[in-house]
DNA sequence: CCAGGGCGTTCCGCCCGCCGAAACGGACGG
DNA sequence: CCGTCCGTTTCGGCGGGCGGAACGCCCTGG
């Protein structure tokens, strides 16, 4: 019941963010919009400066200006802010995309992803995507490092779920065995029962000074790029662990130097003055 | 010549990002759109999940989902990434908005701003806004810390400018005196000749290990909140200096652990595989 | 208690601007 | 040289966006 053209344009802009470069044909396939409609929407976004049509690369991509469509939102937890730079640095160095996820009730939500930074990434950016707790690397790396009480609580919630992604919650001994294994190894990988099969993710917990798991950070790679999963694990799990502990240290420094309360603050209503910072 | 409703909606979304909370009346005043049109656009964005209508606070605001409209773009230089967390932490603690700016030829461009995080901020967010080099705190804190060669080069460019913001470049002795003063103090403030008059900004350079100025970070406050500018300077300049050096250290750690090249990487064309990271 | 103003929101008929099938033209590749 | 697959342009028809007017609400002040 909204404005159709606006809904469509927002979808297109959203889709444009999922891949570094987008052809009309791809967008047509994904959005099911007629090509002339796509061209018209893209032209509009281009005139507004949010999109550019790079003919050399043969496709459309978002420009730096899109950041101004979300510059008003950074109430994210500090762990994501502190982790961003490390995620980006990891991707620049090792090419594979890195994601940071936060717990959300009975699942995890991806809050940052370097997919567009990754020149070899065939993956979609998954910011704001929800992931299962018991099948995804980013979920397992979280739940396995919860303390007993929080773990039992979450498992209790998951047992009520009918989602096949949460099936493991109905097999306590199997689950416990997996959790122990993850805790000992210090990292988790995605369940092999779950799509996509041609890639894998290695994830580790980001643990605060006090011992609480705050978030998880994970790296995704194409299986075909390595002779075995073990090879990728040997290579990346130490890097992720050291990044995770560095993030935790950064958080410590940020809060000790400035004494932040971790909970986001509520913005208050302010009057409209037409001035600017500089 | 684009789709009018889409152009309007993008403008509205952009405006929504400039303030933590937006009433219809404010948006009407800023966009000059009829109120029914605004309501229709906002309803559309709300249905799509990008905006919420917080009736308690009596206004519209962007939601976390807007990040997915720019998640495809993160080519930001590492110094901005490293500085984000510090800017946010400063604002959470001291309430005033903090901005990070990068040099761009003969001016500075704001690349990050915590205006929407600041509950007392009556300022507009200025991400992507261009600032003069010789009047703005964020510009002065940069140019004053350039080495001789780069300084002369930039001043040469500025002398060709007719912009009143660059007028100081035509008065070398005055300029030199100001530069010396800034270098000694370690911070810069906005020229009193320039709008807005009811606020001021204190900015310091972010200097890399090698001695190069990479960027500047500045805090803006309402003059009426302090008994004198000196009081604000005494309070904030040490904080900014310590944040700037912490950012520089973070950069060092990021690059030494991972050996990053500072220049952004160019994303390559990749084939369309329908998979995802997790 | 009511008048007045400002607010966000709803209504509804007019009309214009969006829509998309069809056509175009250029780039491959066989 | 023709077939195919692109991205892009054209253009007429019509449906959906538009905004003035009106509504209901909450203030404030008389």
UniProtKB/TrEMBL annotation, chains A, B:
Q: Which domain of life is it from?
A: Bacteria
IclR-ED domain spans which residues? 65-253
Q: List, alphabetically, the InterPro entries matched.
A: GAF-like_dom_sf (IPR029016), HTH_MetabolicPath_Reg (IPR050707), Tscrpt_reg_IclR_C (IPR014757), Tscrpt_reg_IclR_N (IPR005471), WH-like_DNA-bd_sf (IPR036388), WH_DNA-bd_sf (IPR036390)
Gene3D superfamilies (alphabetical):
3.30.450.40, Winged helix-like DNA-binding domain superfamily/Winged helix DNA-binding domain
The protein's UniProt keywords, in alphabetical order, are: DNA-binding, Transcription, Transcription regulation
**Residues in domain HTH iclR-type?**
3-64
Task: Check the record and name the PANTHER family matching this protein.
Answer: DNA-BINDING TRANSCRIPTIONAL ACTIVATOR MHPR (PTHR30136:SF23), HELIX-TURN-HELIX TRANSCRIPTIONAL REGULATOR, ICLR FAMILY (PTHR30136)
Q: What's the name of the protein?
A: Transcriptional regulator
Pfam family example for this protein? IclR_C
């Amino acid at each position: 019941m909204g404005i159709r053209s606006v809904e469509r344009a927002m979808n297109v802009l959203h889709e444009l963010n999922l891949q570094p470069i987008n052809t009309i044909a791809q967008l047509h396939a994904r959005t099911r919009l007629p090509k002339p409609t796509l061209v018209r929407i893209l032209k509009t976004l281009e005139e507004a400066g949010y999109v550019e049509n790079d003919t050399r690369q043969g496709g459309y991509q978002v420009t730096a200006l899109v950041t101004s469509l979300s510059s008003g939102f950074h109430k994210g937890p500090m762990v994501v802010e502190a982790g961003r730079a490390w995620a980006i640095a990891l991707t620049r160095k090792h090419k594979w995309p890195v994601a940071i996820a936060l717990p959300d009730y009975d699942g995890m939500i991806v809050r940052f992803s370097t997919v567009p930074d990754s020149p070899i990434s065939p993956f979609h950016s998954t910011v704001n995507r929800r992931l299962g707790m018991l099948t995804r690397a980013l979920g397992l790396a979280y739940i396995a490092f919860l303390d007993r009480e929080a773990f039992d609580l979450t498992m209790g919630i998951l047992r009520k779920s009918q989602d096949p992604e949460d099936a493991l919650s109905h097999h306590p001994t199997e689950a416990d065995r997996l959790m122990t294994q993850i805790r000992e190894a210090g990292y988790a990988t995605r369940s092999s029962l779950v799509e996509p099969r041609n890639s894998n993710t290695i994830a580790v917990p980001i643990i605060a000074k006090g011992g609480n798991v705050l978030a998880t950070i994970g790296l995704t790679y194409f299986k075909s790029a390595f002779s075995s999963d073990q090879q990728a694990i040997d290579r990346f799990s130490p890097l992720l662990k050291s990044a995770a502990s560095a993030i935790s240290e950064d958080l410590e420094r940020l809060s000790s130097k400035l004494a932040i309360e971790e909970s986001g603050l509520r913005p208050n209503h302010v009057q409209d003055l037409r001035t600017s910072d500089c």
